[in-house]
């Protein structure tokens, strides 16, 4: 990353002068959010053993609980004197700590192209494969923390999950950073295996849910999980969200989505693609993310047809303008 020198020096100063540091991330955490926060927490604790360095969020991931746990929250007075670091979250509405703005100073570290300008100091690199890649370079190259074996494993987890096992959004720098993390000696095979492990319940449901997938005329795929479906199959929010992966890697499907019904009647849509830009679709409905992986929150089910129409349009454009994938020249 090309870190601005002035911003880097300011961040170093904020880390030094604050005795309490609170880290948080986006709601509905994925591997990058958790790996970035917990990995940075470990690295900061290693460098500043005398400081109070904690992770505080309002929700958690049962599936990825083996990566770590949040800490107990602190008092309002402590927040006012704390440095708050928000990682892997572009929008205020998605921050999983509603007290984030009570901090004495706020820093944002993110790799999403779209988002809000809510921090006193921001490090936003859309070219990074994951927020964990940014944090890794901050620790390894700028000395914002001391890298440990456990911190390296957590940050690697963030990179490997957000890239789908290095299948998308990667650069040569991503591989270099991952290699540097692996050099700290954690068990790569064990960690990667646990990160992509499915439960028997998920495996058994996949066949049923695949039969519910619908196609648009131009080849976009989508799955709609209303509340009654979610309750019938006794699915957790995480399990429902992970169903978007059922449509990944299928020949002839360039874009796909899953619509997840919430208790309040709203819908969360997860958008994915193989080459096409679905972030544009997400932004039209108040969401955001990355070109190949984005999401949005729909106020009512009446918005679903409009999203499907945009998916179909994007699929058609993808078919009309195919990207050459020949590697035999």
How many helices? The count is: 12
- Widest sheet: strand order? 6-7-8-9-11-10
Number of strands: 11
Terminal Cα span: 32 Å
CATH homologous superfamily descriptor of the largest domain: inorganic pyrophosphatase (n-terminal core)
Instruction: Classify the secondary structure makeup into a structural class.
Output: alpha/beta
Helix % is: 25-40%
* Tally of structural domains: 2
Q: Biggest sheet, open or closed, and with what strands and sense?
A: 6 strands, mixed
CATH architecture of the largest domain: Alpha-Beta Complex
Q: So what's the overall shape? A: globular
Radius of gyration: 20 Å
Please write the string of helix (H) and strand (E) elements. Answer: HEHEHEEEHHHHHEEHHEEHEEH
CATH topology-level fold name of the largest domain: inorganic pyrophosphatase (n-terminal core)
Reading off the top of the CATH hierarchy, the class of the largest domain is best stated as Alpha Beta
Give the percentage of residues in beta strands: 15-25%
Mean pLDDT: 94
